[in-house]
Amino acid sequence: MNSSSLHFAVPITVPTILASAILLPLSLLFSRGIYHLYFSPLSSIPGPWYAAVSDLWIIVHTLRCRKVRAIDDLFKVYGPVVRIAPTTVAFLDPDYEQQTTRMVYTALKLDKGPIYNAVQMNGHLHSYTVDSQYRVAIIEHNVHAKYKRIFSSHYSPGNIALLHPDMKVSAELLIQKIMEAKGQPVDIFHGMHLVMIDLILKSTFGHDQGALEAWSENSHDIIMSAIEDFALLILIQGIVPNWLFSVVRRFPNKRWQSFCSSGDTLFDTMADFVREQQNEKDAGRLDERDKSTLIERLFAHNDSCAPKDRLSFKDMTSESTTHLLAGVDASAVAVSYILWRFANQPLHIKQQIQAELDNAIPDAGVLPDWKTLHNLPILDALFKEGLRLHGPIPTFLERLAPRGEPLNLLGYQLPPALIFENPEEFDISRWLDDTNELQDAMSQAWAPYGLGTRICIGQHLARGAMKTVLAALLRNFDVLPCPETNDKTMNMMELFRTFGHDQCVLEAH
């Protein structure tokens, strides 16, 4: 009897192929979700299940520019440590002394998270060639420390005092431009952009851009337009894979092409300034200046350091671009928000601020020196409260966990601390109460410029410029809110800029 065997074959059909193409990725996603939910080293950290299995939740809120608010809602439900993505944890330091915050941002010196890789540009440097994308933001701590040593003196309080005359000139010119509006609504957000563009280019290159001088209803500043576009481009590049973005950026629309090349526009513009300054240096004309610029400090570093430590043309251009991007939008957002809040304060609060400014500035047209403005307590309280409640660049300062040993990040049983009473209210008096035992804790928790060794190096420049402009505007005008500006239009959005404009009516005293 002959033995026989049975063979079964599954016919390969188009539906079978399609089903396999769908089921296989779904199976992989399901398996990945199960792993992250139950077997990942982070599975014991509290948080919603959908955040643990997929990045989709956080991506949606990022696109809506509401990630900060969404995570704040999770803190209220799950406590001070919460899992917001399969491999990402957020924490809210409940300690008055902010010990965990200082550990993460100071003691451990952790590298920045991958979101900072989104700040990329492709330079077109004429005789210089950049073969691939490169980062404007510095991720690695040791690399950042090297650059910080080179130019930290440029942003010291003493050097900012030397730059303050330029701030006063810009503030006085802004007053003049508002006067020319003859009581019509003025877009302070736009105007402050131009103030900061002029100041940063002046302190970086000694270049007089004249952006504020040229400001009119129909004026267009290429640097400002590129900065506005690039802020939104960063958001997109931080979410969309590089291969996909390289495809969609080729869409043949003139406005879209301009938007996608905004980073290149900024980099190339700054490259022209660096090249111009190099020519000035070669001709021996930089020594004629009365105060050093940032680019001069970079040149001086190259002249004195070992060859291996010298900055390339690309390095200097990239660093200059970073300083411009960091200072323009953030300061414009902060001043706009503070003015809007001031315009909606009770009369007695306005009178309290005005009385301090009237006393410090007897002649409304002559602003005092930086030391006088810096030591005005009520103006400082207005400034602090504005930045406390509405961070100019509201986002999480992501850091990578250290290699090797695990990171012990708080305990889950700790109750939340109440450092700021009624934290959602704008109340400058919280900074003026010397009897409040939480003053030190409040000062430690106030971190609009970041913390630790990676704190914003230009904070003194930004603080000086903003306070000078605020003092000038509040001393010379009555600030009234426009009907179109309200809580919704001024709501904080997580982005490297804000979409809303702060239109206030400013009337001369």
From TrEMBL:
Pathway: Secondary metabolite biosynthesis; terpenoid biosynthesis. Keywords: Heme, Iron, Membrane, Metal-binding, Monooxygenase, Oxidoreductase, Transmembrane, Transmembrane helix. Coiled coil: none annotated. Heme binds at residue 456. One of its GO terms (molecular function) is oxidoreductase activity, acting on paired donors, with incorporation or reduction of molecular oxygen. Its cofactor is heme. It comes from Lentinula guzmanii. InterPro entries: Cyt_P450, Cyt_P450_E_grp-I, Cyt_P450_sf, Cytochrome_P450_monoxygenase. The chain crosses the membrane at residues 6-30. SUPFAM superfamilies: Cytochrome P450 (SSF48264). GO terms for cellular component: membrane. It is found in: Membrane. The lineage of its organism: Eukaryota, Fungi, Dikarya, Basidiomycota, Agaricomycotina. Pfam families: p450. This is Cytochrome P450. Belongs to the cytochrome P450 family. Its main location: membrane. The keyword Zinc does not apply.
